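Quick start: read one record
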Amino acid sequence: MEIEKLFKTADYIFPALVLNDETNKFVSSKLIDLMKPTSSIITTLNKEIVDMNYLLKKVKSKKLYGCAFEDDEKTVMKKFEGNVFVMLPNNWYTKETIDKKMEIWVDNIISVIKGKPINLVN
């Protein structure tokens, strides 16, 4: 699908790109302007790939439904106008999550040792 068509038709855009010279501000004002007023952008990686100032203006003026992104404590405490949700980085980092990740990691190692690997990615 062409990127323009994706932005015109998607209800949610979740860009997950590595930040580099080519992807910096990849989600430009031009792409944001293609979005429906009922659409949202959610970015938990490298918010620098999105023209955040423009995105926040569009959400504030209700020309986009909303946005969510990760940032530091200072940004989390800011008052935004419109449907804006700011998350702290690593907000998933809980004791329960770490315990579960360790359990999965150990189970994977044991399964490989037994010659019956699990959680394969093709």
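The two ends are 23 Å apart (CA to CA).
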